[in-house]
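Example complex used in Figure S2.
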Amino acid sequence: MKVKSLCITLLMLCFASVAIAQFAGKKDGKKPRRDSNKSGLFGGGKKNQKSQVKSRFQGEAPQWQLGVKGGVNLGHVEATQSYTVVTPLDLGSNLTNAKMYDQAYSNMGNHIGLTSSFAVNPNISLSFEPGYTTVKFGYETSYQWSQFEDQQSYVNVTNDVDHSISYLDFPLMLRYHLKTGPLKPYIQLGGYYGFRTNADKNINTRIEDGAAGGLDEISNVSERIGVDELFLRSSAGVLGGAGVSLDVGSSPTGMNAGSDLGTVRFSLGVNYRYGLHNVVDVKNRYDDSSLTSGSYDVTDDLELRNIEIYLGCQFTLKYKNF
Amino acid sequence: MKFLNSILARIPGIGAIIIILATSCDIQDNTVEPQDVFTRVYNTDNYGDAFYPISIAQTADSGYLILGGREVTDTQFLSAYLIKVDAQGDFQWERTPSENYVNPLNGLVKSGTSYQFFCMDKLNLGTYLVQVEDQAGSFTQVGYLEALQYPLAISSITSGGFVVQGYNREDQTTVLARLNQNAVAIWQEEYDTFEDVEENIIKHMIRTSRPLPFMTGSVGNSFFFNGFYNYSFSMGFVNASDGTLTGVINGPGVDDAISGATQINGNEFAMARYSFLENKIIPSYNISVNSIEATGDLEGLQFDELTQQANFTIKKVNAAGKATVIFGTETKTGQILLLAYDQTDQTLLGSRYLGFGQPYQMADFSTTQDGGLIVLASTHITGRFPRLALFKLSQFDLEQLAGGPQPQ
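Predicted assembly (730 residues):
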């Protein structure tokens, strides 16, 4: 269902992006131009194709691009300081009550948004990619009570805790294309700021009670709690990654009269996002009694680590003869 | 088109500004020390363990010394049990000082660099005064009063020493004794209950019934006790020099009694009482130590959400620049309720609930060196196993409770 929504949204953003590009062309009251590096509009028509071929080989390339991107986030958090409610009354106890975090990058979130880039030269461009991103992570805590003399007297409680935090995301990156041409591998480095819009915590509690006569799970309660206040509004960090872009379709020199889309650039890439600070609002860590004293769950200090895999396409708004 | 291009040209700059502005606000302001706020439940993995909290005191190292009772196999009484935790609530040590020490009483009293508490002898039912060194976790028996049996409540006297309430099962009398600092009796007086209440007292001690609100304390040149007297559960006032009874607030039977009291100024007390199913809070009441009254005469604010015959811990606190009285009690839904009243005009300043989803009951609370509040509670972890719980509120939380600054 989420994948479907993601695809539909991506498609709509794609149409919107095309519409913006088209609107930009029409507003100037002329057909999109391919022969100038000054007006900077992509366009169609067959006029001056020879000169365009010439200019292309002289170094005309997309300068401004606008498009959409989307993909998945493989979430991971680094607990920089642990907190616990249930505290063992024995320093030598193996009752650590520590949270067992999910395997790194095993929780899949998603992201979707716009992507814009400005080419400084054929190899270097600046990208600003505002979007909506959701990161997920989780852990498990378990507690056991037993009686040595009576094997039937035991209780096992396991809390499976999952988090989902959504941000309006504003990444800014410097991208370096390792080579020129239609197929261009690139590396990029930048920073991001996220504005938290929503945070949920889902606690699934399983209880096995040997004393009640059953060996199987006797209770499985799932509770979803909004925890907006538990996470800071802001999230900032650095990111770096690599990918490959492919310029297809019309270009200033090879444009199809009917398409009017200019150069369309498809990108496939991976970013590693490294949060620079604790995203938990420590002032509110213990505020939700249903979590702390009901489920004995208290959130650690957490820094976000994320692998972002994305696919994007960009439409050219302006060319420049570099 | 120029407009669009101009917007696009500014995007990187706008992005950079957003990042700079954003990282300068809530991220940088995100600091709270771990000892400022925490919630703890102290647990063992033994199915049969049961711990009940009694009293808490903050130690010189900013940690906390907790007095409690622990179920043991050779007696139905709770064995005296202490744990020490650090300022963040992390466990440091636990002790069960002696198998003879049972039924510890509410009140960890600071004595120099040590702490003292009273408890009962397991077999002879006499009264011990025990001293504990919080750093070493060692114990010293300060005194033992064999004649003061079934100790039920103690309070320390400003001028030194203690007032201890007990019960004489042979004479069927409530006993009040004034002790010096070494637990030597200065005087000991008895007050007729006119009926055998030993069963009620034992049920109270072994927790098979609701705990009864036994208390002692001082008011001017008098002491008071809250206990069995004259066929009822009453508050009696006695002369501090010889224990002569001078006045009483009678409660009809045990279903109507004063459930909490603390002195505000002179004869002015903040009190709470229950009457069958009702619980009432009396933010201010002028006690007359020389007259006979009835608990029914004490008008108060009725709180229907409280558990039946709720116990109260009432203490004076200075918070947010105000002289405040905090009432700590428990609700029918298993939450702890803190209510703050202005000492001067008795208006409600604020309230705060602690605990949710599991049952919690108030045991004791105290202000802390950092201006916060520590609340000792009883809970049943996962609804099953009796354990000790701690709630630490920050100075800001306490000020909010007292009607101070509200969160943004």
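The radius of gyration of chain B is 24 Å. Chain B touches chain A through 54 residues (CB under 8 Å).
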